[in-house]
Amino acid sequence: MSKKFKILCLLLTAAIVVTTVFNLNTGFLTLHLQDFFQDSAQSQIAEIRINRVLVMLLAGISIPTSGFLMQEYFQNPLAGPDILGITSVASLSVAFYILFSHDFLIPEFLQNSFLSLAAIAGSLLLMLVLLSMSNRFQDKSYLIIFGFLVSAFAGAIVSLLQFYAENQSLKNYILWSFGANNMVTRNQIYVLSILVFIGLFFSFKSIKPLIGNSLGTSYAQSLGVNLNQLKILIIAASSLLSASITAFLGPILFIGIIVPHFCRLIYNPSKLWQQWILNMFLGMLMMMLFSVTAEKTQIPLNVISSVFGIPVILLMLLKQNRL
């Protein structure tokens, strides 16, 4: 590893630690150190803040990794986790659950778990469809078109459901779509950690073939890269990582596009192993900053990520147009 890469990792690690401490001390009440380690009147609030930090760290690892894999595989800097329609289908599954679950007697403590399960189930179902369709689409662009069509169809169904929804159900769905990082319980974080770990394992297996793929299809095949297996790994990793975060936090937009872009600006874009590590570090830092901003301003997380991400993407488009 180069000296520059080590310095970048150290700086990002220090920044993550600082923002984590700041995040733990951000809220309506001032907590003391013993509140995080001993039973006290504020222990429950301390646990909520710890859960908030943990889920933001997991999101910072997952979303940029998913975007990084998509951008490297499709060789498109504007590709993101939602390019295959995974986020849209997760949102559709949640919409079905929220808008129709009022007809069933579900205990309150299970409602959030079933909501997350609905999002994961919908995304995994789409992942299976994508894996089966990928064998028919030899050209990568067809997968992008298929994902776009799925996103458009899911968005149309969600709009239709919202049109006929009751007021409370509609409000619940809108609140979920804003992104809420204070509602995730410790048990849900355990489940999310397992899903993220599996997604990261698939990501790890796909980096080396991606290096060969970046040199061109013909050259990659001459190196013995199994392009069909690579496609399956990319779809599986991106689906698990983006779907799991969407399930528990709601759709967090644009982070999967802009974090890989920043990483390519600060370090050699051809070194994919280092790029992957930088994406995770920078993603964690950015999500921690967004979390603090959301707590300070009471603005929904998804709104903050959109306000930050849209101008960056516009600048990327203008830069590409000049080139």
From TrEMBL:
Q: Which GO terms describe its biological process?
A: siderophore-iron import into cell
Where does the record place it? Cell membrane
The alphabetical list of record keywords is: Cell membrane, Membrane, Transmembrane, Transmembrane helix, Transport
Q: Which Pfam families match?
A: FecCD
GO CC annotations?
plasma membrane
Which residue ranges does UniProt annotate as crossing the membrane?
A: 53-71, 83-100, 112-131, 143-165, 185-204, 232-260, 272-292, 299-318
Coiled-coil portions = none
Its membrane topology, per UniProt? Multi-pass membrane protein
GO MF term list: transmembrane transporter activity
Q: Which domain of life is it from?
A: Bacteria
Family statement = Belongs to the binding-protein-dependent transport system permease family. FecCD subfamily.
Q: What is this protein called?
A: ABC transporter permease
Originating species: Chryseobacterium angstadtii
